[in-house]
Design brief:
The complex is a heterodimer of chains A (257) and B (351). Chain A is of the alpha/beta class. Chain A is 32% helix and 27% strand. Chain B has 351 residues and is mainly α. Classes of the chains: A alpha/beta (257), B mainly alpha (351).
Chain lengths: 257, 351
Protein backbone atom coordinates (compact mmCIF):
# COMPACT_ATOMS: atom_id res chain seq x y z
CA UNK A 1 0.00 0.00 0.00
CA UNK A 2 1.37 3.34 -1.06
CA UNK A 3 0.13 6.86 -0.29
CA UNK A 4 1.30 9.33 -2.89
CA UNK A 5 0.94 13.09 -2.68
CA UNK A 6 1.39 14.48 -6.18
CA UNK A 7 2.12 18.15 -6.95
CA UNK A 8 -0.27 19.20 -4.24
CA UNK A 9 -1.14 22.88 -3.87
CA UNK A 10 -3.68 24.85 -1.92
CA UNK A 11 -4.87 28.41 -2.37
CA UNK A 12 -7.66 30.23 -0.59
CA UNK A 13 -10.58 31.47 -2.69
CA UNK A 14 -9.06 34.98 -2.43
CA UNK A 15 -6.04 33.67 -4.34
CA UNK A 16 -3.58 33.49 -1.45
CA UNK A 17 -1.37 30.47 -2.10
CA UNK A 18 -0.57 28.45 1.05
CA UNK A 19 1.71 25.82 -0.47
CA UNK A 20 2.56 24.44 -3.89
CA UNK A 21 4.31 21.44 -5.40
CA UNK A 22 4.11 19.20 -2.37
CA UNK A 23 5.34 15.90 -3.68
CA UNK A 24 6.17 12.78 -1.70
CA UNK A 25 5.03 9.27 -1.10
CA UNK A 26 4.83 6.98 1.86
CA UNK A 27 4.72 3.23 2.35
CA UNK A 28 3.15 1.35 5.23
CA UNK A 29 5.46 1.25 8.23
CA UNK A 30 7.11 4.59 7.40
CA UNK A 31 6.84 7.83 9.35
CA UNK A 32 6.87 11.17 7.62
CA UNK A 33 6.97 14.32 9.75
CA UNK A 34 5.92 17.77 8.60
CA UNK A 35 7.74 20.63 10.29
CA UNK A 36 7.04 24.31 9.98
CA UNK A 37 6.46 27.53 11.88
CA UNK A 38 3.06 28.76 13.05
CA UNK A 39 0.76 29.74 10.24
CA UNK A 40 2.80 28.09 7.51
CA UNK A 41 -0.11 25.81 6.63
CA UNK A 42 0.90 22.47 8.12
CA UNK A 43 -2.63 21.72 9.25
CA UNK A 44 -4.07 22.74 5.88
CA UNK A 45 -1.63 20.38 4.18
CA UNK A 46 -2.56 17.53 6.54
CA UNK A 47 -6.27 18.30 6.05
CA UNK A 48 -5.84 18.00 2.30
CA UNK A 49 -4.09 14.64 2.68
CA UNK A 50 -6.85 13.56 5.10
CA UNK A 51 -9.56 14.44 2.56
CA UNK A 52 -10.95 17.12 4.90
CA UNK A 53 -10.06 20.08 2.67
CA UNK A 54 -9.94 20.01 -1.08
CA UNK A 55 -6.57 20.87 -2.64
CA UNK A 56 -6.63 23.41 -5.45
CA UNK A 57 -3.79 21.74 -7.37
CA UNK A 58 -2.54 18.20 -7.70
CA UNK A 59 -3.95 15.13 -6.04
CA UNK A 60 -3.54 12.36 -3.51
CA UNK A 61 -3.39 8.75 -4.54
CA UNK A 62 -3.84 5.52 -2.61
CA UNK A 63 -2.05 3.06 -4.90
CA UNK A 64 -3.67 4.05 -8.20
CA UNK A 65 -6.88 5.51 -6.81
CA UNK A 66 -7.28 9.25 -6.66
CA UNK A 67 -8.89 9.79 -3.26
CA UNK A 68 -11.39 12.11 -4.92
CA UNK A 69 -12.89 9.03 -6.57
CA UNK A 70 -13.24 7.10 -3.30
CA UNK A 71 -16.30 7.38 -1.10
CA UNK A 72 -15.73 8.89 2.33
CA UNK A 73 -16.31 5.45 3.77
CA UNK A 74 -13.77 3.71 1.53
CA UNK A 75 -11.24 6.40 2.41
CA UNK A 76 -11.92 6.10 6.14
CA UNK A 77 -11.14 2.38 5.99
CA UNK A 78 -7.64 3.18 4.71
CA UNK A 79 -6.69 6.51 6.27
CA UNK A 80 -7.47 7.61 9.83
CA UNK A 81 -7.12 11.16 11.07
CA UNK A 82 -6.25 12.12 14.65
CA UNK A 83 -7.28 15.69 15.44
CA UNK A 84 -5.71 17.91 18.05
CA UNK A 85 -7.05 17.41 21.56
CA UNK A 86 -10.17 19.41 22.25
CA UNK A 87 -12.85 19.63 24.90
CA UNK A 88 -15.62 17.29 23.85
CA UNK A 89 -19.29 18.14 24.35
CA UNK A 90 -20.68 14.84 25.54
CA UNK A 91 -19.39 12.41 28.12
CA UNK A 92 -19.15 9.26 26.01
CA UNK A 93 -17.26 6.49 27.73
CA UNK A 94 -13.78 5.72 26.44
CA UNK A 95 -15.06 2.45 25.01
CA UNK A 96 -17.96 4.13 23.21
CA UNK A 97 -15.56 6.70 21.82
CA UNK A 98 -13.12 4.08 20.51
CA UNK A 99 -16.06 2.11 19.11
CA UNK A 100 -16.87 5.04 16.84
CA UNK A 101 -13.73 4.13 14.92
CA UNK A 102 -15.77 1.22 13.55
CA UNK A 103 -18.20 3.62 11.82
CA UNK A 104 -16.92 2.99 8.27
CA UNK A 105 -17.61 -0.74 8.72
CA UNK A 106 -21.17 -0.32 9.99
CA UNK A 107 -24.34 0.45 8.10
CA UNK A 108 -27.85 1.43 9.04
CA UNK A 109 -28.75 -2.16 9.80
CA UNK A 110 -25.37 -3.56 10.78
CA UNK A 111 -24.61 -3.01 14.44
CA UNK A 112 -21.34 -3.69 16.26
CA UNK A 113 -20.51 -7.38 15.93
CA UNK A 114 -17.88 -9.63 17.47
CA UNK A 115 -15.25 -8.73 14.89
CA UNK A 116 -15.84 -5.03 15.68
CA UNK A 117 -15.67 -5.64 19.40
CA UNK A 118 -12.38 -7.52 18.97
CA UNK A 119 -10.85 -4.61 17.04
CA UNK A 120 -12.00 -2.20 19.76
CA UNK A 121 -10.37 -4.38 22.45
CA UNK A 122 -7.15 -4.71 20.46
CA UNK A 123 -6.98 -0.97 19.84
CA UNK A 124 -7.46 -0.16 23.52
CA UNK A 125 -4.90 -2.84 24.45
CA UNK A 126 -2.31 -1.50 22.00
CA UNK A 127 -2.31 2.00 23.46
CA UNK A 128 -2.86 0.64 26.98
CA UNK A 129 -6.10 2.34 27.90
CA UNK A 130 -8.23 -0.74 28.57
CA UNK A 131 -8.45 0.20 32.24
CA UNK A 132 -10.11 3.49 31.23
CA UNK A 133 -12.88 1.85 29.19
CA UNK A 134 -15.79 2.86 31.43
CA UNK A 135 -14.47 6.32 32.27
CA UNK A 136 -16.12 9.36 30.71
CA UNK A 137 -14.05 10.85 27.90
CA UNK A 138 -14.62 14.30 29.40
CA UNK A 139 -13.15 13.32 32.75
CA UNK A 140 -9.79 11.88 31.72
CA UNK A 141 -6.58 13.91 31.32
CA UNK A 142 -5.41 15.50 28.07
CA UNK A 143 -2.72 12.86 27.62
CA UNK A 144 -5.21 10.04 28.09
CA UNK A 145 -7.63 11.73 25.71
CA UNK A 146 -4.90 11.80 23.06
CA UNK A 147 -4.38 8.07 23.55
CA UNK A 148 -8.10 7.41 23.26
CA UNK A 149 -8.27 9.32 19.98
CA UNK A 150 -5.32 7.30 18.67
CA UNK A 151 -7.06 4.09 19.77
CA UNK A 152 -10.11 5.17 17.81
CA UNK A 153 -7.92 5.66 14.74
CA UNK A 154 -6.48 2.15 15.22
CA UNK A 155 -9.99 0.71 15.52
CA UNK A 156 -10.58 2.08 12.02
CA UNK A 157 -8.09 -0.59 10.77
CA UNK A 158 -6.43 1.93 8.48
CA UNK A 159 -3.19 1.58 6.50
CA UNK A 160 -2.22 5.16 7.26
CA UNK A 161 -2.70 7.36 10.30
CA UNK A 162 -2.45 11.15 10.12
CA UNK A 163 -1.74 13.04 13.33
CA UNK A 164 -2.17 16.80 13.62
CA UNK A 165 0.29 18.02 16.25
CA UNK A 166 -0.33 15.08 18.55
CA UNK A 167 1.73 16.62 21.36
CA UNK A 168 0.00 20.00 21.48
CA UNK A 169 -1.32 20.79 24.98
CA UNK A 170 0.54 17.81 26.47
CA UNK A 171 3.06 17.94 29.31
CA UNK A 172 6.68 16.85 28.86
CA UNK A 173 6.18 13.24 29.90
CA UNK A 174 3.08 12.79 27.75
CA UNK A 175 4.88 14.32 24.76
CA UNK A 176 7.62 11.69 24.99
CA UNK A 177 5.11 8.90 25.54
CA UNK A 178 3.11 10.00 22.51
CA UNK A 179 6.26 10.05 20.34
CA UNK A 180 7.16 6.55 21.52
CA UNK A 181 3.65 5.39 20.68
CA UNK A 182 3.97 6.89 17.20
CA UNK A 183 7.17 4.89 16.67
CA UNK A 184 5.49 1.75 17.99
CA UNK A 185 2.62 2.24 15.55
CA UNK A 186 4.99 2.46 12.62
CA UNK A 187 6.71 -0.73 13.84
CA UNK A 188 3.28 -2.32 13.76
CA UNK A 189 3.05 -1.45 10.08
CA UNK A 190 0.99 1.72 10.02
CA UNK A 191 2.19 4.47 7.69
CA UNK A 192 2.22 7.72 9.62
CA UNK A 193 2.20 11.38 8.67
CA UNK A 194 2.55 13.75 11.59
CA UNK A 195 2.80 17.51 11.87
CA UNK A 196 4.80 19.00 14.69
CA UNK A 197 6.02 22.29 16.14
CA UNK A 198 9.02 20.76 17.79
CA UNK A 199 12.15 19.97 15.70
CA UNK A 200 13.51 17.84 18.52
CA UNK A 201 10.63 15.41 18.01
CA UNK A 202 11.64 15.13 14.38
CA UNK A 203 15.13 14.03 15.45
CA UNK A 204 13.57 11.53 17.84
CA UNK A 205 11.42 10.06 15.08
CA UNK A 206 14.05 10.16 12.35
CA UNK A 207 13.23 9.07 8.81
CA UNK A 208 12.12 11.70 6.35
CA UNK A 209 10.90 15.18 7.10
CA UNK A 210 9.07 17.74 4.99
CA UNK A 211 9.68 21.38 5.89
CA UNK A 212 7.00 23.90 5.00
CA UNK A 213 8.14 27.50 5.31
CA UNK A 214 6.09 30.67 5.41
CA UNK A 215 6.42 31.32 1.69
CA UNK A 216 4.72 28.01 0.95
CA UNK A 217 7.82 26.17 -0.26
CA UNK A 218 7.91 22.51 0.75
CA UNK A 219 11.24 20.67 0.84
CA UNK A 220 11.97 17.09 1.79
CA UNK A 221 15.05 15.45 3.23
CA UNK A 222 16.36 12.74 5.49
CA UNK A 223 16.29 14.20 8.99
CA UNK A 224 19.97 13.93 10.01
CA UNK A 225 21.35 15.07 6.68
CA UNK A 226 18.79 17.73 5.90
CA UNK A 227 17.93 19.51 9.16
CA UNK A 228 20.90 21.76 9.92
CA UNK A 229 21.33 24.51 12.50
CA UNK A 230 21.36 26.95 9.65
CA UNK A 231 18.12 25.73 8.09
CA UNK A 232 16.25 25.60 11.40
CA UNK A 233 17.52 29.05 12.42
CA UNK A 234 16.22 30.52 9.20
CA UNK A 235 12.92 28.67 9.55
CA UNK A 236 12.19 30.01 13.03
CA UNK A 237 14.07 33.37 12.83
CA UNK A 238 15.89 32.43 15.99
CA UNK A 239 19.33 30.84 16.54
CA UNK A 240 18.81 27.09 16.87
CA UNK A 241 21.45 24.67 18.14
CA UNK A 242 21.98 20.97 17.52
CA UNK A 243 24.03 18.75 19.83
CA UNK A 244 24.79 15.10 19.34
CA UNK A 245 24.00 13.06 22.43
CA UNK A 246 26.03 9.90 22.89
CA UNK A 247 23.49 8.66 25.40
CA UNK A 248 20.52 9.05 23.09
CA UNK A 249 22.46 8.39 19.88
CA UNK A 250 20.73 11.24 18.17
CA UNK A 251 20.81 14.97 17.68
CA UNK A 252 19.17 17.16 20.26
CA UNK A 253 17.63 20.38 19.11
CA UNK A 254 17.28 23.41 21.31
CA UNK A 255 17.48 27.19 21.23
CA UNK A 256 17.85 30.21 23.50
CA UNK A 257 21.54 31.11 23.41
CA UNK B 1 -4.74 -14.08 27.27
CA UNK B 2 -6.93 -13.54 24.26
CA UNK B 3 -9.48 -16.04 25.57
CA UNK B 4 -9.48 -14.19 28.82
CA UNK B 5 -10.26 -10.87 27.14
CA UNK B 6 -13.03 -12.29 25.02
CA UNK B 7 -14.67 -13.82 28.06
CA UNK B 8 -14.39 -10.57 29.94
CA UNK B 9 -15.74 -8.65 26.98
CA UNK B 10 -18.72 -10.93 26.57
CA UNK B 11 -19.43 -10.61 30.24
CA UNK B 12 -19.22 -6.83 30.08
CA UNK B 13 -21.37 -6.60 26.98
CA UNK B 14 -24.03 -8.80 28.52
CA UNK B 15 -24.10 -6.87 31.74
CA UNK B 16 -24.46 -3.53 29.96
CA UNK B 17 -27.18 -4.73 27.63
CA UNK B 18 -29.10 -6.16 30.53
CA UNK B 19 -28.87 -2.89 32.41
CA UNK B 20 -30.09 -0.88 29.49
CA UNK B 21 -32.90 -3.18 28.42
CA UNK B 22 -33.98 -3.64 32.04
CA UNK B 23 -34.22 0.12 32.40
CA UNK B 24 -36.15 0.46 29.16
CA UNK B 25 -38.59 -2.28 30.19
CA UNK B 26 -39.01 -0.62 33.58
CA UNK B 27 -39.80 2.71 31.93
CA UNK B 28 -42.32 1.12 29.58
CA UNK B 29 -44.01 -0.59 32.55
CA UNK B 30 -44.19 2.76 34.35
CA UNK B 31 -45.68 4.31 31.23
CA UNK B 32 -48.26 1.52 30.95
CA UNK B 33 -49.26 1.89 34.60
CA UNK B 34 -49.54 5.60 34.13
CA UNK B 35 -51.84 5.09 31.12
CA UNK B 36 -54.26 3.05 33.22
CA UNK B 37 -54.10 5.47 36.15
CA UNK B 38 -54.65 8.42 33.84
CA UNK B 39 -57.67 6.72 32.24
CA UNK B 40 -59.18 6.32 35.72
CA UNK B 41 -58.71 9.92 36.76
CA UNK B 42 -60.92 12.87 35.92
CA UNK B 43 -64.20 14.48 36.89
CA UNK B 44 -65.88 11.14 36.33
CA UNK B 45 -63.71 8.70 38.33
CA UNK B 46 -63.59 5.15 37.03
CA UNK B 47 -62.09 2.19 38.87
CA UNK B 48 -59.00 0.40 37.61
CA UNK B 49 -60.79 -2.94 36.92
CA UNK B 50 -63.40 -1.09 34.85
CA UNK B 51 -60.73 0.67 32.79
CA UNK B 52 -58.87 -2.57 32.18
CA UNK B 53 -62.14 -4.27 31.24
CA UNK B 54 -62.95 -1.54 28.71
CA UNK B 55 -59.45 -1.71 27.21
CA UNK B 56 -59.47 -5.50 26.93
CA UNK B 57 -63.00 -5.51 25.52
CA UNK B 58 -61.78 -3.25 22.73
CA UNK B 59 -59.21 -5.81 21.64
CA UNK B 60 -60.84 -9.13 22.52
CA UNK B 61 -64.46 -10.07 21.79
CA UNK B 62 -65.70 -9.63 25.37
CA UNK B 63 -69.04 -8.19 26.41
CA UNK B 64 -68.74 -4.44 27.15
CA UNK B 65 -69.15 -2.93 30.60
CA UNK B 66 -72.78 -2.47 31.57
CA UNK B 67 -72.55 1.33 31.77
CA UNK B 68 -72.18 2.81 28.29
CA UNK B 69 -70.95 6.07 29.84
CA UNK B 70 -67.85 4.37 31.22
CA UNK B 71 -67.00 2.98 27.81
CA UNK B 72 -67.48 6.33 26.15
CA UNK B 73 -65.51 8.33 28.75
CA UNK B 74 -62.58 5.94 28.59
CA UNK B 75 -62.45 5.33 24.85
CA UNK B 76 -63.77 8.58 23.36
CA UNK B 77 -62.69 11.22 25.84
CA UNK B 78 -59.62 9.97 27.64
CA UNK B 79 -57.92 7.40 25.44
CA UNK B 80 -57.17 9.69 22.46
CA UNK B 81 -55.86 12.26 24.88
CA UNK B 82 -53.58 9.78 26.62
CA UNK B 83 -52.24 8.60 23.26
CA UNK B 84 -51.69 12.19 22.14
CA UNK B 85 -49.80 12.98 25.36
CA UNK B 86 -47.46 10.03 24.86
CA UNK B 87 -46.89 10.71 21.16
CA UNK B 88 -46.33 14.45 21.62
CA UNK B 89 -44.19 14.11 24.75
CA UNK B 90 -42.11 11.34 23.21
CA UNK B 91 -41.69 13.19 19.91
CA UNK B 92 -40.66 16.46 21.53
CA UNK B 93 -38.16 14.72 23.81
CA UNK B 94 -36.77 12.68 20.93
CA UNK B 95 -36.39 15.65 18.62
CA UNK B 96 -34.77 17.61 21.46
CA UNK B 97 -32.21 14.86 22.02
CA UNK B 98 -31.52 14.70 18.29
CA UNK B 99 -31.03 18.48 17.95
CA UNK B 100 -28.71 18.46 20.97
CA UNK B 101 -26.69 15.72 19.30
CA UNK B 102 -26.33 17.08 15.76
CA UNK B 103 -25.67 20.63 16.91
CA UNK B 104 -23.19 19.35 19.54
CA UNK B 105 -24.98 21.61 21.92
CA UNK B 106 -26.81 20.45 25.05
CA UNK B 107 -28.52 23.84 25.31
CA UNK B 108 -30.78 23.60 22.29
CA UNK B 109 -34.30 22.24 22.03
CA UNK B 110 -37.18 22.50 19.56
CA UNK B 111 -38.41 25.64 21.32
CA UNK B 112 -34.99 27.28 21.66
CA UNK B 113 -34.14 26.70 18.01
CA UNK B 114 -37.36 28.45 17.02
CA UNK B 115 -38.73 25.27 15.45
CA UNK B 116 -41.84 25.20 17.65
CA UNK B 117 -42.71 28.84 17.10
CA UNK B 118 -41.94 28.54 13.38
CA UNK B 119 -44.23 25.53 13.15
CA UNK B 120 -46.84 27.50 15.07
CA UNK B 121 -46.64 30.37 12.56
CA UNK B 122 -46.93 27.90 9.69
CA UNK B 123 -49.97 26.29 11.28
CA UNK B 124 -51.56 29.68 11.95
CA UNK B 125 -51.09 30.78 8.34
CA UNK B 126 -52.67 27.51 7.22
CA UNK B 127 -55.63 28.21 9.52
CA UNK B 128 -55.95 31.71 8.05
CA UNK B 129 -56.01 30.35 4.52
CA UNK B 130 -58.40 27.62 5.68
CA UNK B 131 -56.90 24.50 4.09
CA UNK B 132 -57.87 21.81 6.60
CA UNK B 133 -55.93 19.52 8.96
CA UNK B 134 -53.54 18.22 6.33
CA UNK B 135 -52.78 21.78 5.24
CA UNK B 136 -52.08 22.74 8.85
CA UNK B 137 -49.65 19.84 9.11
CA UNK B 138 -47.82 20.92 5.96
CA UNK B 139 -47.85 24.52 7.16
CA UNK B 140 -46.39 23.54 10.53
CA UNK B 141 -43.64 21.50 8.87
CA UNK B 142 -42.68 24.22 6.39
CA UNK B 143 -42.68 26.83 9.18
CA UNK B 144 -40.52 24.60 11.36
CA UNK B 145 -37.99 23.86 8.62
CA UNK B 146 -37.77 27.57 7.69
CA UNK B 147 -37.20 28.49 11.33
CA UNK B 148 -34.44 25.92 11.87
CA UNK B 149 -32.82 26.97 8.58
CA UNK B 150 -32.85 30.60 9.70
CA UNK B 151 -31.49 29.72 13.14
CA UNK B 152 -28.60 27.70 11.76
CA UNK B 153 -27.75 30.21 9.01
CA UNK B 154 -27.31 33.21 11.31
CA UNK B 155 -24.18 31.87 13.10
CA UNK B 156 -22.65 31.05 9.70
CA UNK B 157 -23.22 34.62 8.48
CA UNK B 158 -21.65 36.04 11.62
CA UNK B 159 -18.89 33.41 11.35
CA UNK B 160 -19.19 32.36 14.96
CA UNK B 161 -20.20 28.77 15.52
CA UNK B 162 -20.09 28.68 19.31
CA UNK B 163 -22.83 27.11 21.41
CA UNK B 164 -23.90 30.51 22.64
CA UNK B 165 -24.25 31.94 19.14
CA UNK B 166 -26.66 29.20 18.13
CA UNK B 167 -28.74 29.82 21.25
CA UNK B 168 -28.74 33.58 20.57
CA UNK B 169 -29.77 32.94 17.00
CA UNK B 170 -32.61 30.71 18.22
CA UNK B 171 -33.81 33.50 20.50
CA UNK B 172 -33.73 35.94 17.58
CA UNK B 173 -35.72 33.62 15.33
CA UNK B 174 -38.14 32.79 18.17
CA UNK B 175 -38.72 36.50 18.74
CA UNK B 176 -39.25 37.11 15.04
CA UNK B 177 -41.74 34.25 14.89
CA UNK B 178 -43.74 35.50 17.87
CA UNK B 179 -44.00 38.93 16.22
CA UNK B 180 -45.28 37.32 13.04
CA UNK B 181 -47.67 35.39 15.26
CA UNK B 182 -48.87 38.71 16.65
CA UNK B 183 -49.56 40.03 13.15
CA UNK B 184 -51.46 36.88 12.25
CA UNK B 185 -53.58 37.09 15.39
CA UNK B 186 -54.21 40.76 14.71
CA UNK B 187 -55.65 40.10 11.27
CA UNK B 188 -57.41 36.83 12.17
CA UNK B 189 -61.18 36.71 12.46
CA UNK B 190 -61.78 37.08 16.22
CA UNK B 191 -64.86 34.87 16.14
CA UNK B 192 -63.41 31.74 14.61
CA UNK B 193 -59.78 31.79 13.53
CA UNK B 194 -58.35 33.70 16.49
CA UNK B 195 -59.70 31.23 19.01
CA UNK B 196 -58.26 28.32 17.07
CA UNK B 197 -54.86 30.01 16.72
CA UNK B 198 -54.71 30.96 20.39
CA UNK B 199 -55.53 27.40 21.33
CA UNK B 200 -52.57 26.31 19.24
CA UNK B 201 -50.21 28.72 20.86
CA UNK B 202 -51.04 27.79 24.44
CA UNK B 203 -50.44 24.13 23.95
CA UNK B 204 -53.22 21.74 24.84
CA UNK B 205 -54.36 18.31 23.89
CA UNK B 206 -57.85 18.76 25.34
CA UNK B 207 -59.53 18.79 21.95
CA UNK B 208 -57.47 16.12 20.24
CA UNK B 209 -59.60 13.86 18.06
CA UNK B 210 -58.62 10.31 17.14
CA UNK B 211 -58.81 11.49 13.53
CA UNK B 212 -56.09 14.11 13.97
CA UNK B 213 -53.82 11.64 15.76
CA UNK B 214 -54.21 9.27 12.84
CA UNK B 215 -53.41 12.15 10.47
CA UNK B 216 -50.03 12.92 12.00
CA UNK B 217 -49.07 9.44 13.17
CA UNK B 218 -47.66 8.29 9.80
CA UNK B 219 -45.33 11.30 9.55
CA UNK B 220 -44.23 10.79 13.16
CA UNK B 221 -43.58 7.10 12.69
CA UNK B 222 -41.55 7.67 9.53
CA UNK B 223 -39.49 10.35 11.29
CA UNK B 224 -38.94 8.13 14.33
CA UNK B 225 -37.79 5.23 12.14
CA UNK B 226 -35.34 7.45 10.22
CA UNK B 227 -33.91 8.84 13.44
CA UNK B 228 -33.62 5.43 15.07
CA UNK B 229 -31.81 4.04 12.02
CA UNK B 230 -29.36 6.93 12.07
CA UNK B 231 -28.70 7.03 15.80
CA UNK B 232 -25.15 5.69 15.55
CA UNK B 233 -24.39 8.41 13.02
CA UNK B 234 -25.89 11.02 15.35
CA UNK B 235 -23.29 9.90 17.91
CA UNK B 236 -20.53 10.45 15.39
CA UNK B 237 -21.98 13.80 14.30
CA UNK B 238 -21.93 14.92 17.93
CA UNK B 239 -18.11 14.71 17.82
CA UNK B 240 -17.99 17.55 15.32
CA UNK B 241 -17.72 17.96 11.58
CA UNK B 242 -14.03 17.12 11.10
CA UNK B 243 -14.10 13.92 13.09
CA UNK B 244 -17.39 12.75 11.59
CA UNK B 245 -16.03 13.24 8.08
CA UNK B 246 -12.78 11.47 8.88
CA UNK B 247 -14.85 8.54 10.13
CA UNK B 248 -16.48 8.28 6.72
CA UNK B 249 -19.71 10.15 7.28
CA UNK B 250 -21.15 12.51 4.70
CA UNK B 251 -21.77 15.25 7.25
CA UNK B 252 -23.97 17.61 5.22
CA UNK B 253 -26.37 14.99 3.91
CA UNK B 254 -26.64 13.04 7.14
CA UNK B 255 -27.10 16.14 9.24
CA UNK B 256 -29.77 17.43 6.85
CA UNK B 257 -31.74 14.17 6.95
CA UNK B 258 -31.55 14.03 10.74
CA UNK B 259 -32.64 17.67 11.14
CA UNK B 260 -35.54 17.16 8.73
CA UNK B 261 -36.61 14.08 10.72
CA UNK B 262 -36.47 15.93 14.04
CA UNK B 263 -38.28 18.93 12.59
CA UNK B 264 -40.97 16.68 11.15
CA UNK B 265 -41.48 15.25 14.64
CA UNK B 266 -41.69 18.68 16.26
CA UNK B 267 -44.01 20.01 13.56
CA UNK B 268 -46.31 16.99 13.81
CA UNK B 269 -46.49 17.51 17.56
CA UNK B 270 -47.29 21.19 17.12
CA UNK B 271 -50.05 20.12 14.74
CA UNK B 272 -52.01 18.22 17.35
CA UNK B 273 -50.98 20.00 20.53
CA UNK B 274 -49.66 23.46 19.70
CA UNK B 275 -46.41 24.61 21.27
CA UNK B 276 -45.46 22.88 24.50
CA UNK B 277 -42.22 24.13 25.98
CA UNK B 278 -39.51 22.51 28.11
CA UNK B 279 -40.14 18.85 27.26
CA UNK B 280 -37.60 18.86 24.44
CA UNK B 281 -34.97 20.54 26.57
CA UNK B 282 -35.33 18.85 29.95
CA UNK B 283 -36.15 15.25 29.11
CA UNK B 284 -32.99 14.51 27.08
CA UNK B 285 -30.89 15.79 29.98
CA UNK B 286 -32.72 13.47 32.34
CA UNK B 287 -32.15 10.63 29.88
CA UNK B 288 -28.44 11.44 29.70
CA UNK B 289 -28.22 11.23 33.48
CA UNK B 290 -29.73 7.74 33.30
CA UNK B 291 -27.93 6.13 30.34
CA UNK B 292 -25.20 8.58 29.27
CA UNK B 293 -24.89 10.46 25.99
CA UNK B 294 -24.80 7.39 23.72
CA UNK B 295 -27.73 7.98 21.36
CA UNK B 296 -28.13 4.24 20.78
CA UNK B 297 -29.60 4.17 24.30
CA UNK B 298 -30.46 7.81 24.86
CA UNK B 299 -32.97 8.15 22.02
CA UNK B 300 -35.30 5.27 22.95
CA UNK B 301 -35.08 6.24 26.63
CA UNK B 302 -35.83 9.90 25.83
CA UNK B 303 -38.92 8.94 23.85
CA UNK B 304 -40.40 6.87 26.67
CA UNK B 305 -39.42 9.42 29.32
CA UNK B 306 -41.01 12.21 27.24
CA UNK B 307 -44.22 10.18 27.02
CA UNK B 308 -44.24 9.62 30.78
CA UNK B 309 -43.50 13.28 31.48
CA UNK B 310 -46.21 14.76 29.28
CA UNK B 311 -48.81 12.16 30.27
CA UNK B 312 -48.21 13.07 33.90
CA UNK B 313 -48.43 16.78 33.10
CA UNK B 314 -51.61 16.40 31.08
CA UNK B 315 -53.28 14.26 33.72
CA UNK B 316 -52.48 16.92 36.31
CA UNK B 317 -53.68 19.64 33.93
CA UNK B 318 -57.12 18.11 33.55
CA UNK B 319 -57.63 16.96 37.15
CA UNK B 320 -56.16 19.69 39.35
CA UNK B 321 -58.84 22.29 38.65
CA UNK B 322 -62.23 22.21 36.99
CA UNK B 323 -60.89 24.52 34.28
CA UNK B 324 -58.16 23.08 32.07
CA UNK B 325 -54.67 24.45 32.59
CA UNK B 326 -52.66 25.05 29.41
CA UNK B 327 -49.85 22.51 29.27
CA UNK B 328 -47.03 24.99 28.73
CA UNK B 329 -47.78 26.54 32.11
CA UNK B 330 -47.31 23.23 33.87
CA UNK B 331 -44.31 22.05 31.83
CA UNK B 332 -42.65 25.36 32.70
CA UNK B 333 -43.56 25.18 36.39
CA UNK B 334 -42.16 21.69 36.67
CA UNK B 335 -39.56 21.82 33.89
CA UNK B 336 -37.74 25.01 34.84
CA UNK B 337 -36.78 24.10 38.43
CA UNK B 338 -36.05 20.56 37.32
CA UNK B 339 -33.73 21.84 34.60
CA UNK B 340 -31.91 23.91 37.18
CA UNK B 341 -31.49 20.81 39.31
CA UNK B 342 -30.14 18.85 36.33
CA UNK B 343 -27.68 21.58 35.38
CA UNK B 344 -26.42 21.65 38.93
CA UNK B 345 -26.08 17.90 38.98
CA UNK B 346 -24.38 17.64 35.59
CA UNK B 347 -22.16 20.63 36.35
CA UNK B 348 -22.27 21.24 32.68
CA UNK B 349 -19.32 22.83 30.98
CA UNK B 350 -20.94 25.35 28.64
CA UNK B 351 -17.92 27.20 27.31
Amino acid sequence: MNLRIAKLGFAYPNGKQIFTEVDFSLKKGEIFTILGPNGAGKSTLLNCIGNLSEPTQGGIFLEKDNIKDLTLCQFAKRVAYVTQIHQPTYAFTVEEFVAMGRTPYLSAFKKLGHQDQRMIEEAMELVRITHLRSKAYTQISGGERQLVTIARAIAQEPDFILLDEPTAHLDFGNQIRTMKLVKKLSDRGYGIIMTTHNPDQVFFIGGRVGVLNRSGVFEIGVVDQYLSEDLLSRLYNEPVHLFYSNQLHRNICTAGA
Amino acid sequence: MLKNISFQEKHLLKEKRLNFSALLVLLVVILGTLVIVSLCMGRFPISIPEVIHVLVANILPLPQVGDANVESVVMTLRFPRVMAAILVGGSLALSGAVYQGVFQNPLVSPDLLGVSSGACVGAAIAILIGIGTFGIQIGAFVGGILAVALTTTAPKLIKNSSNMMLVMSGIIVGGLMSSIMGIIKYIADPETELAEITYWQMGSIAKVLPKSILMVAPAMIVAIIIIMILRWKINVLSLGETEARSLGINVKTTRRIVIIGATLLTASSVCISGTIGWVGLVVPHLGRLMVGPNNMKLLPVSFVLGGIFLLMIDTIARTITSAELPLSILTGLIGAPFYFYLLKKERMNLS
